[in-house]
Each structure stands twice: as structure tokens, then as C-alpha cells.
Amino acid sequence: MNREIKFRAWDKFNKKMIEWNDRLDEWMIALRDKYNKTEERNHLEFMQYTGLKDKNGKEIYEGDIILSKYFDERLEKYIERKAKVIFEDGCFQVKDKQFWQPSLYNIMTKGWTVQVIDNIHEATEEQKEEWGL
User: Fold this and answer.
1) What is the DSSP letter of 58?
2) 71-93 pLDDT, tens per residue?
3) Which of 35, 41, 120, 132 lies at a 20 to 30 A Cα distance from 11?
């Protein structure tokens, strides 16, 4: 399986997401040079693209908060879960305090509907608490 390798970055100083574009490398080098003179060297937190897109065609990155929905035949109703996308044990996983799936790809190929609703850096503390993250 071939997938596009790309990243986005959370700028801890400016509290904003830097999306991937042609100028990102240039911008990161300038920031690195600026902040290497300070004690805080890890001002950018990189998140890798999973190679997957949600139901609306939005790219899914690690650190994204997703709403997943599936039909539970046993209960005869739809189940919704909010969880964070993480990279662990060599794959992108879906995790919250009560819910864990070993693979984002796995849930998407088993008929679950997945939608990106936020990311871990821009969600409020209340949202994180509500979602169990």
C-alpha cells in the first residue's frame, strides 16, 4: 500500500496549527533558527498524516479527534465514539479512556463512519473531559 507521507505541526508558542504546504519546510527552518537560541527548542509538535481521509474527504492526522459511528447488530442501534488518533506500536490507532482499536485502518474497513471533529491541541479542556481524552 502506497500512501502520501506528510506532516503538519502544532506551534506551541503561537498556539496554532501549521498545515502542510510548499512553504512549510522554509518556515520550519526559520523558526528553528529563531528558537534554537532559546532554551525552548521543541516548539513544534509534528503530526503525521495517516494516509486516510474521513467521510468528508478531510485528511486524518495523528492528534485528530474523530467521531466514529457504526451499527451494532447485537444491540440493533448505532454506536458513536469520540477518540484520539495516535501512532503506537507501528500503526495509527484510535484511543480514549474506555475505547481502543488497534488500527484506524481496521475500523474504516469494517464499515465504521469516521469524521474528524477537532484535534487534541485546539479542543477545549471541557471537550477533552467530555470525550474522555
Assistant:
1) P
2) 888 999 988 888 889 888 888 88
3) 132
